[in-house]
Specification:
Order of helices and strands: HEEEE
Distance between the termini: 52 Å
Oligomer: single chain
Helix content: 10-25%
Number of domains: 1
Strand content: 35-45%
Number of strands: 4
Shape: elongated
Number of helices: 1
Mean pLDDT: 83
Radius of gyration: 19 Å
Amino acid sequence: MNTAEKSLHYVVEKWLAPVPPVRIRVVQFGRMRADGSRYVHVEASAPAGSRAIFFFRHDDGRWCVFPPRIAQPSMTGYRLAA
């Protein structure tokens, strides 16, 4: 995957497919409380109607439409031979 495919601009065009009469705007952006990862709420307005979508930044730098997994604490148990 090249750097361009990781950019927010690339995924906005991919998912909202802007064409000349469409206006794209960022409605909201910030960080999620649980793990501090970034999100952006983007809206596309056109004469036919508007569409909105959330994008989430992953640890590898990609922007995706699904949030990154939150690392959960884990434990492994072993049974000792008597």
